């Protein structure tokens, strides 16, 4: 398994979870260069809303997957990233609502997060799923996880996440045979990385454009 | 082509567009009973948010489609149907925002529309697309149509539809061979209708539960 993150601090934390079959390397998702059809599974957690060119990255991921291989990713939900600037709940009547605005304007959004200003890329749902299909992948699942009543009983502070979905999770697979009408782009294997030790890739937090260190 | 609508008034309007290859009949989407694998294309326009049991209907549609056949439908966007009760834009600061709330509560929503109260069914995006996948269909497209700048120049009143998506359009196809892991349910052909004159079906406005008239 190959795990990548552009943050040296994240990789330092990961060093506490060393495992002989896991290789960590410092790289952003966009800077990775891997051999064609070298991976069975690509997992990305809350990272792709930091990536400027989503369509190109998904096509490259599709090229890295072996036929039948899978990709699963989570992103901040388009409902949450739409309004520019991004804000939280707003007052409406005697309560609050989640504000949606600027939905069709797929540009960057600045957000203050953990004391710093981060830049996210708002994309329509149709763009996220359309990029999967345009890469020749088959959509296999979609989820908008929300806490259930039991979870809210334990953690009342989670209740707002039933009022608007915080996350979107998408899974897809590369067809066993590449469909003739949508050939999968292959990256050409001019990679900075040799073939990973194993056959899965996770992006822990590729939110910057630092270059790979390996 | 078979066109169905539960409204006698809509069918009276349709009579003005008679065509030898088009057959109109009065029926709701849910009450239709058709032979297995009799259709190449099913089209539904802004109707499925009136249907109580979406998952069952999509499985029945999948059974009516010939292998390789397509379904395309539009619904009111979940962003628009979420808040209970459904409302329009709300004031926020010096402007307005589109209010989202109650997103995970997939129940009915009452809405005043053209002077009457209509009942819609709010569903999460994950439920809409998940129903497609659960029926053994392959997602082929998704769109959230919004007016472009040229359209807004001609029709400034359309500008708000760039701020939040009014519609969701989904297309899918039945695989050429039914996948072994998700057999398509077949309705059994005990139909009130004979095989339609042609091989496409449209639902004009199936928003009630009236029974077919023949």
Describe this structure as you would to a colleague.
The structure is a homodimer of 214-residue chains. Chain A contains 6 helices and 11 strands. Chain A has helices at 8-14, 54-64, 78-81, 125-134, 149-154, 160-163; strands at 2-5, 23-26, 39-45, 65-76, 90-92, 95-100, 108-113, 116-121, 138-143, 167-173, 200-203. Chain A starts with a strand and ends in an 11-residue tail after the last strand. Residues 186-198 and 205-214 of chain A have low confidence and may be disordered. Chains A and B meet through strand 5, strand 6, helix 4 and strand 9 of A and strand 5, strand 6, helix 4 and strand 9 of B.
Task: Report strand order across the widest sheet of chain A.
Answer: 2-1-11-3-4-10-9
- Number of helices, where a helix is a run of at least 4 consecutive DSSP H or I residues of chain A: 6
> Which runs of chain A of at least 5 residues are low in confidence (pLDDT < 50)?
186-198, 205-214
The most extensive interface, with participating residues per chain, is: A-B, 34 and 34 residues
| Shape category of chain A | globular
Mean pLDDT of chain A: 87
Work out the helicity level of chain A. 10-25%
Beta strand % of chain A: 25-35%
The helix-strand sequence of chain A is EHEEHEHEEEEHEHHEE
Q: Tell me the distance between the termini of chain A.
A: 16 Å
Radius of gyration of chain A: 18 Å
Report the strand count of chain A. Answer: 11
Q: How would you characterize the largest beta sheet of chain A?
A: 7 strands, mixed
């Amino acid at each position: 398994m190959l795990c990548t993150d552009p943050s040296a601090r994240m990789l330092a934390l990961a060093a506490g979870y060393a495992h002989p079959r896991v290789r960590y390397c410092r790289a952003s998702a966009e800077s990775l260069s891997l051999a064609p059809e070298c991976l069975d599974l690509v997992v990305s957690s809350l990272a792709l809303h930091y990536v400027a060119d989503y369509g190109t990255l998904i096509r490259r991921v599709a090229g890295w997957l072996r036929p039948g291989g899978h990709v699963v990713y989570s992103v901040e939900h388009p409902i949450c990233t739409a309004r520019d600037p991004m804000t939280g709940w707003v007052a409406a009547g005697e309560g609050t609502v989640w504000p949606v605005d600027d939905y069709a304007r797929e540009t960057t959004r600045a957000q203050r997060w953990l004391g710093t200003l981060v830049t996210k890329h708002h994309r329509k749902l149709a763009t996220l799923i359309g990029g999967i299909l345009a890469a020749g992948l088959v959509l296999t699942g979609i989820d908008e996880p929300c806490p259930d009543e039991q979870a809210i009983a334990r953690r009342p502070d989670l209740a707002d996440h039933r009022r608007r979905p915080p996350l979107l999770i998408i899974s897809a697979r590369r067809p066993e045979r590449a469909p003739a009408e949508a050939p999968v782009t292959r990256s050409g294997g001019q990679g900075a990385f040799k073939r990973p030790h194993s056959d899965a890739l996770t992006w822990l937090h590729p939110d910057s454009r630092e270059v790979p260190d390996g």
